Amino acid sequence: MGLRVLQMSDKLNGFGTPTVFRLTIEALESEYEVYIAATHMEQGEKRLILKSWEEPKSLLKRFIAFLYIKENQKSLYDFMIRNDIELVHLHSYQKDLSPSVLRAIKRYKRKKRIKVVQTLHDYHLICPNNSFYCYSNEIACHDCLEKGAGQVIKNCCDYRGKLFSFLRYLRYLICFKVLKQKEIVDEYIVPSDFSEEMHSRAGIRTHKIYNPVDNFYLPFARGLEEKENRIVFFGRLSPEKNIPLLIYAFSKIAPKEGYILDIVGDGPQRGKLEELVKKLGIVERVVFHGRMVKAELANFVSRCKISVSPSKCYETFGLTIIEAIFLNVIPVVSATGALKEVVERAGFNTTFESDNVESLKRKLEEVIEKYDEEFWILMKNKKSVEETFQEKVYKNRIIELYNTIVKK
Which CATH architecture has domain 4-121+186-212+391-407? Predict the structure, then answer.
């Protein structure tokens, strides 16, 4: 089967980073002997189930696990020894895991002289809060890039407050000062020019490889005559996604247009968003759907005309943009982070000024007015989009990188 490759991330199931993680595994299983390490997944012969820092019931033990899970260090090292792993591809470990996985990789690398690749789905190498987003002020910022990692404490960037902001700083020190992650990882992958530029500013060399998008969505796409007057947001309902902006902008669109706003997903802001809808008097025009399983989501979103990504944080890619295009849905996105790059790469001029209600309102009205024209632009560009973000292109680029670093 060739190289024995360990794919590791926080989670195997879910949307966003877990989607890219799964597609990477599926793409490479025919080329390599692939092993998987993650939390919350079914047991399997080539799988290692790691513990999440959130599992302990005691708050003190949970805080300790946030910084270090000794059990994961031992089980991961033993798993790599037992299976004679030759290359590790690390995805995300900052959400559910802890720096202990780096200690295991470092120890194993010293023994076996393996190669390590990491896909940077966030900005944790530069920003202890991972996202260049300060939750206490609800703004995108890159103070850590310019003034140092300690800004995460000063600005109280973690959404859980001062204690977790301090813990994030401690974890950052463990990763980069104690364990020296930059010496453990041989090559970094980023999914966009924007992410590449931000890491370059910190002196980190990366390889840009666009994320793959699941071809699963393509058969669900609907034609023009099947579309309904619906605008959709699908994703996590959290502050950085800036969904209140979308609700305010939608409330300013005349009811005569006959559009419904659909909000698909769940998260900590759902209650506040529902209250905002009531306050604005648009309850009959906004529908909260909660979480949907993959097929249900694809089937529903494909009925909509417009998808909106109003995020005000620096997204590293924007997977929902391409998923929307695969479903024949016009993407309208905030001109921030990689969102602008991805939508323009797909051939659209459907961005609006970040965090600007009037700008989003005008862009929505423009797309509504010229919808048929925008739809045919989508159909014209779709084949090119599919070719750019298809799994085969991603697979070939990953294999090329693996071959290059293994030969070094």
Answer: 3-Layer(aba) Sandwich (3.40)
Tell me whether domains 4-121+186-212+391-407 and 215-389 share a fold.
yes
Tokens coding 211:
């994320």
Q: What are the pLDDT digits (tens) for 127-158?
A: 999 999 999 998 898 899 889 999 999 999 99
Give 255's DSSP letter.
G
As a whole number of angstroms, the distance between CA 59 and CA 45 comes to 33
Using DSSP's 3-state secondary structure scheme, residue 188 falls into strand
Q: Which of 26, 21, 10, 16 is nearest to 294 (CA)?
A: 16
List Cα–Cα distances, 323 to 258, 331, 393, in angstroms: 25, 9, 16
Task: For the chain, give percent helix, strand, coil, nearest 5.
Answer: 50, 15, 35
The Cα-based distances of 62 to 9, 69, 159, 262 in angstroms read 19, 10, 17, 36
23 to each of 14, 243, 319, 365, 390, how far by Cα in Å? 12, 28, 13, 36, 10
Say whether pLDDT at 394 is over 80. yes
For residue 268, CA distances in Å to 41, 243, 274, 367 come to: 24, 12, 12, 30
Structure tokens at 357: 């209600």
| 297 pLDDT higher than 70 | yes
C-alpha closest to that of 338 among 350, 326, 325, 321: 321
For the chain, the domains span: 4-121+186-212+391-407, 215-389
DSSP count for the chain of H helices, then E strands: 17, 15
Q: pTM surpassing 0.85?
A: yes
Nearest to 217 by CA among 398, 18, 397, 390: 390
CB environment 28-47: b (16+ within 10 A), e (fewer): beeebbbbbbbbbbeeeeee
Domain at 215-389, CATH homologous superfamily: Glycogen Phosphorylase B; (3.40.50.2000)
Measuring CA to CA, which residue among 329, 331, 284, 328 is closest to residue 308? 331
Q: Which DSSP string do the residues of 336-397 spell out, in sequence order? A: SHHHHHHHHHTT---EE-TT-HHHHHHHHHHHHHTHHHHHHHHHHHHHHHHHHH-HHHHHHH
